[in-house]
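A.,

Following up on our hallway conversation. Structure tokens first:
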């Protein structure tokens, strides 16, 4: 399964570390949104979209990239994030991106998130939260998640 991961990682490199582990598991190319030739996206069977979470949302560069995609995409996709807080109700931060990708025609087969070092104010005042994250266990969870994606992609029509 030919895969690509579109990743924005700007603060501490947390999301890039997760993307690297997923990319190894999937033998996927990892690129920033500005490096993607949208016309060549059709060559991929599986597309990953990931970034850190900023004020409860994915990074604006990733969101702008998704907005620029034409409708009618026919790819399987997955979404991943790193955040100081969990992707949980009532404010699940992955939900709006998953919904928008669906409107573009992507079939989002799964999502993944893990905790990560966060220095957004007011956390910066105390040296940040979730120091040392993502840790080895988080990265192993990311690898396990990615290794299971091809089977989940094949299982969905």
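Then the amino acids I'd put at each of the 157 positions:
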């Amino acid at each position: 399964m030919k895969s690509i991961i579109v990743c924005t990682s700007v603060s501490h490199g947390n999301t890039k570390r997760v993307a690297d582990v997923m990319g190894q598991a999937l033998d996927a190319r990892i690129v920033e949104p500005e490096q993607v030739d949208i016309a060549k996206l059709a060559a991929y069977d599986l597309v990953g979209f990931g970034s850190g979470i900023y004020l409860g949302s994915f990074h604006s560069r990733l969101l702008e990239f998704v907005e620029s995609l034409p409708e009618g995409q026919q790819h399987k996709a997955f979404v991943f994030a790193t955040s100081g807080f969990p992707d949980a109700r009532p404010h699940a931060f992955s939900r709006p991106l998953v919904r928008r990708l669906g409107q573009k025609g992507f079939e989002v087969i799964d999502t993944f998130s893990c905790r990560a070092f966060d220095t957004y104010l007011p956390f910066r005042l105390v040296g940040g939260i979730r120091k040392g994250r993502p840790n080895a266990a988080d990265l192993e969870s990311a690898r396990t998640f990615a290794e299971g994606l091809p089977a989940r992609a094949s299982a969905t029509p």
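Residues 136-155 form the longest helix (20 residues). Curious whether your intuition agrees with the design.

B.
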